[in-house]
Amino acid sequence: MxxxxxxxxxxxxxxxxxxxxxxxxxxxxxLAGLLPLPAEASPxxxxxxxxxxxxxxxxxxxxxxxxxxxxxxxxxKTSMPMILADELDIDWKTVIVEQxxxxxxxxxxxxxxxxxAIRQGWKILRTAGATARQMLVNAAAKTWNVPAxxxxxxxxxxxxxxxGKKAGYGEIASVAAGLPVPxxxxxxxxRDFKIIGTSRKNVEGLNIVTGKPLFGIDYTQEGMxxxxxxxxxxxxxxxxxxxxxxxxxxxGIRDVFTIKTLKDDYERNGFDTATFTELVVVxxxxxxxxxxxxKALKIEWEKISDTNIxxxxxxxxxxVRIPVGLESTTEHKAKMAEWSKKPGKVLRKDxxxxxxxxxxxxxxxxxYSAPFLAHNTMEPVNCFAHVTADRxxxxxxxxxxxxxxxxxxxxxxxxxxxxHIRLARMGGGFGLRAYGxxxxxxxxxxxxxxxxxKLVYTREDDMTYGIYRPTYSATYRAALDEKNNLxxxxxxxxxxxxxxxHPNRFPAGALDNYLAEGWEIExxxxxxAFRAPGSNFIASAEQxxxxxxxxxxxxxxxxxxxxxxxxAQKNPVGKDNDYDPERYAGVLKxxxxxxxxxxxxxxxxxxxxxxxxxxTYVAEVIDLVIQNNKPVVQKVYAAVDCGxxxxxxxAINMGEGGxxxxxxxxxxxxxxxxxxxxxxxxxxxxxxIRHSEAPKSIEIHFVENDKDPTGLxxxxxxxxxxxxxxxxxxxxxxxxxxxxxLGSKQTLPG
Amino acid sequence: xxxxxxxxxxxxxxxDVDPKTPMLxxxxxxxxxxxxxxxxxxxxxxACTIHFDGIAVRSCQLPVSAVGNKLITTIEGLSENGxxxxxxxxxxxxxxxxxxxxxxxxxSAAAFLKKNPNPTDEQIESAMNGNICRxxxxxxxxxxxxxxxxxxTL
Lengths: 750, 154
Fold this sequence. Notes:
heterodimer; A: about 750 residues; alpha+beta; Aldehyde Oxidoreductase, domain 4; 3 domains; 17 helices; B: about 150 residues; Ubiquitin-like (UB roll); DNA polymerase, domain 1; five-stranded mixed β-sheet
């Protein structure tokens, strides 16, 4: 058993209060900053893991657990309360989970992203549950006049064996509410968990399958108007003039006007990405009427001029230039090819890579690239807002309410405490909903109309608005001697407008001579976080290159990776390697065993890939065949080390999602541009993976250990791209360097 | 605008709307049944699937004027208490992640299993191909459809 303090520091504490009608309420910080942040999460903020929440135990024994995190499908609303319930020692069936509103006075910070919820919540949730349990034990000891050490608990009941006394938590809760919070409590041994490590169903399951109004787009109230926006059809354009005569005269239309969402001199926060700050708005009674009127707008557009915006995000204040121009994919590709050849910014250098390349008998050089991607959450962007003279109420999909509150406050001229955001279940997030421009738009529209308004984007508005995954390119070089020993390794990776490189990740640390460089090309196309930012591309390039390298060196691709990891473990190069080589090797060994890698697989083409990001280690093997010149993925094996698995079936569901999503994006995902215009605007042109294209079977195996858990929303996604590329190479003998591998072509390139 | 008398989930409903209004918006905004979801508006994603005389259709492409006396069933009318075999199978397999597309998936699956109570994997894939799940829960959907197919009470 581990003994932990209940007061972690001044800002993280547990306090108790009585509930009306009997019972107790324990307030505690939900996601305290107990662990160092991973490199990829730190940009999201230095201290966002400080959330408060509470446990309520009513006199009748009902237990309510407040879930402060916005839910976008990663199932934190089930798995986080499970951790609490286990230490509290209650029957999971008695638990009611409630979604908290955004409430900074009580919860401090509420954010979903970075695969961090379980990892950051682990210790504090356990401590909170154990504290409540200990207080109930102490209250029973006082009531029964017996030593606390003789009292046991099970499934919401307190027992004193010697006297035969027993009571439910609810009966004792009001006594517990009057006791001091113990300074220290004991946490369970891992082997004593009863709920953690067992599969529990989604607490919203029934509401989802019966179509209950859970999402922002489902919201309605008396007198609510519907608003839609018209944004420029191309990046690099803005509104010049609007002829709204026809639109205004259409049935059900209340008003047409233009709004400015962010003022020109506004200093933006890190998540204030807003592609178009001037928008034409149509307001009416119903969505259908507004959609039709929007089509009747006659808008003239003009080119933007070079603009500088000030962004005060993580890493301080910087000026970002938004260049003029109507950009096209052909031009992007040419620019990226040009920049790949120029020296980049050196991000890490070990040994003497240039010297080693000069001595090499063979140099292998390969360039990989990937396009812009749209998030395409199934629920289009929307938000309800009602802004009056002294308060603003908002309800909608948002991953980061804290950040957008600041923006809303500045824009609406209301103090932050007058801005009330209720958190809707999100119809997908994938990073998109970290950006709250839709909340600002809805609020500005409502303020102008002095009426409750629901802003709804059409799918076309949503898909062509921007905030895409950047387009990337990475060039890898390896120097080999005459015996095919690896002398040096060089990666130079860039993107528009952001690079994907993580210079201290594997294989850094395993190579004496290593060089990592980055470059970035500015653009007026907006980008943002997309499931495993950066990793989702660089893993595909790196793990494809390692496969090519292994083949050139005459080595098995798994053995080659294990040799590098062995070196990184026994005699690491450099000090900043941000991975644990032993755990990394562990997932490769597990996937090798589970996929029976060494047994020949007749008629099946296999590819392997492994990656570490968001604190979780993953190795994946794909088996595929080619039928009618199309790949059919028959089986995917994944080995995952995320420490303790809190909710195994839900963890597998999340992992399957990451794998299938990755295969879909690798094969089909792309947002091309022509003269600034996104070339896809709906699901009839933007190819998403569908039922028949999903793998026929997926096996996910977890490394069994007692390590504190880490997250799963992102880590299974990045490595699958390369596992697929490597299997396709086996199948066709042709290496694919450019994503998407199929695109709209539907069949493999000949 | 015109008056339409509709039969939705076994109840008579009267709406006064533009005859071209798709059933998607009639259901969501006039009858306040929001389980039918807006995803694309061009019949490319399946989120708005309902039953039109027992057949799965995309309600974003079904104008209210084309409905007449035919029966409309939405997710809210599929069962009394969420206990239709397809809904039960969805819960058994804990299919949903974000959950937004799942009502459309369930409506497609329920209509399909009525026609073909003993489908092969390929038939399931083909019948469900019009329903996109961005969270990519496809394997669980397929498993749930198979479980529902085994149920005696379809």
